[in-house]
Amino acid sequence: MSGVTRRQFIKIGAATAGAAAVGSGLTTRWWGLDDDPVANPGTDGDRVVPTFCELCFWKCGVLAHVKDGRVTKITGNPAHPLSRGRLCPRGTGGTGLLYDPDRLKRPMLRREKRGEQVFEEVSWEEALDFTAQRLLNLKDRYGPESLALYSHGYGGSWFKHLLKAYGSKNIAAPSYAQCRGPREVGFQLTYGSTLGSPEVLDLENSRVITLIGSHLGENMHNTQVQEFATAIDRGATLIVVDPRFSTAAGKAKYWLPIKPGTDLALLLAWMHVIIAEGLYDKDYIDQYAIGFDQLKEHVRDKTPEWAYTQTTIAPETIVETARVMAGGRPASLVHPGRHVVWYGDDTQRSRAVAILNALLGSYARRGGIFVPSQMALPAYPYTAYQGHPKAPPDRPKDQGYPLADEVLASGLCMASIPGTASYDIKGWLVYGTNLLMALPQPERTKEAIQALDFIAVVDVLPAEIVGWADVVLPEATYLERCDDIDNPPWKVPFAAVRQEVVPPMYDSKPGWWIAREIALRLGLSDYFPWKDSMEYAMQRVHAAGYDCDVLRTTGVVIGKPRPTTIEDGLVPKFATPSGKIELFSQRLKDAGFDPIPQFTPPEEPPTGHFRLLFGRAPTHTFGRTTNNRFLSEVFNQNELWLNAQMAAELGLKDGETVVAVNQDGVRSQPIRLKATQRIRTDCVFMVHGFGHDAKGLRYARNRGADDSRLVTRIKTDPIMGGTGMSVNFVRVERA
Hints:
With 735 residues, the protein is of the alpha/beta class. Among the domains are: 201-369 and 572-590, Dimethylsulfoxide Reductase, domain 2; 610-734, Beta Barrel (Barwin-like endoglucanases). Helices cover 29% and strands 15% of the residues. The protein has 23 helices and 26 strands. The strands form 7 sheets. Strands 5-4-15-14-13-6-7 form a 7-stranded mixed beta sheet, with helices on one face. A 6-stranded mixed β-barrel has the order 19-23-20-22-21-26. A 4-stranded parallel beta sheet has the order 10-9-8-12. Helix 9 (263-276) runs antiparallel to helix 12. The chain starts with 5 loop residues before the first helix and ends with a strand. Mean pLDDT is 92; it is low at 1-42.
């Protein structure tokens, strides 16, 4: 196996032994609860089906091994550009979702009050007729724009199409305002393009990698972690900025345990050093950027000594790391992160990351940020959407987020509370996203749900949001269905197919079928003229001139490579108003914001409180996988990280059970304490996605604590509406 070995790859996530067990398929018999539908399936197969994964959004190519109609193991597809023959621990655990005994098995209608989780199983005919009639009622009474879709996952494309055909633009993904949105807007303002998903980062060729609150190795994005491991193996220097000594920090030459909320001050100080010492890429800036003189003046007084008073990072460390960063240019990458909604200044902080990368000359450069190419696949020849639906009411009254380029999920939630927006949302269709954990301020989400006329949930597992639905439509897992072709922008253009590995279990149905059946009942058959999703996908592939049989056999087709960096012969173009990299943003100035990022000190915690931080574990995708018995053999509940000195002062010991109580008096579930020197004294940390209280999640229920319930306050990014959630404080008590 060339490059990083599987052993090295798993070690980065600190899960070697457990992940190996997960990958073997041998943990199947340890599930408990129900008789295992797959009795000791072994690891061989009589056929192998290529498809792509849905355990997270990365969509790696996988090979599903099937024997006697049972999936026995899942391996990486070596032909797929994202997996390269390897999978993260989560990807190998896909059978844990397929054979989860708690799966939603049949359609259900609510029989008691919302939230009481009392349902009756019904036929698909009854559930679909009920759904369609309620949607027709909404349209007749309030107009089509009264319906909103919350979507997460690749299968959501069918429901987005359904909503547009129905006549609503209210389509949102929590991953925008609650995760990546500020980064996308910050880079769009600077370079005229976003970073996309998967992010277009050439980590494997980086000489210096700077991570700011980005937990590679715990945040297990397959291709990035493989390339990260390759770069480290080749001798790349790693700088990690994090209040916690993360897995990545353990591999770093420099760990900067920054005071939470002061990252922007550090970024400005790095710019000061790089500019003052002439370490920036002058030729690159002269040729491709505008606004350098304004930037130079802006950071003139942002000295390392000034930043020290804010960040607690020693001035000499700031100077040394700035020089190391500049010494690796242009293959010096300041990682933009993904979950970047922290403190409410998140677009400006992401702008600062983008500007720092520009000073290093890393955009469109090898070892930096590459410019991707995409395989051209013609759209399916749909009937054109009719009418002119109203714009989404996702901005609060008398406020606006002028540079938001997607609909805000949190804004649609607020618009479901009568009188808070330009018009009321009256119905929700929720696909694959557990809004009670995905959105901040869960009590407000419940208030919004109670005000709705109708809510339908399409999901695989009985997550918390299912308990609030009027109708539950059980979807087949990604191993039991076909979906649209995946052709994301990447280093090489490619198209990958998702195809049925085994037939749907129980009475679950693929999302394309559910969306189409609803559409037929709504009189929208013109928008769903195809027989099934495979016919739909293969029509697009055939129209593009590719061999459908080859695609189904290999799982992926690769297009002609194109230059992605200046070193390859690329001539970069920037879709900004000036056609250049904009260090000074006139768009921001015209909108009433700082044209160059300005630091504002964060709020201090109340006496006796710690700032609440949260993140991920390498074996889990937030709450989406915490009911997975395979993956939970490795990591089955979260802990509350607290500095050991602080624990001793509070009379608390490592391993005992505690509760966190936030500034508004909201208490967490009991959680095990991790007293450690690996975190600053002014904050605590927990892995997100635990503490489920849904009755149907029999394995995950009551394991660990849910950080979401402690997020009762947010700071909204005024530029694009992202919900900064790291602004809550907790005290820690013995349970």
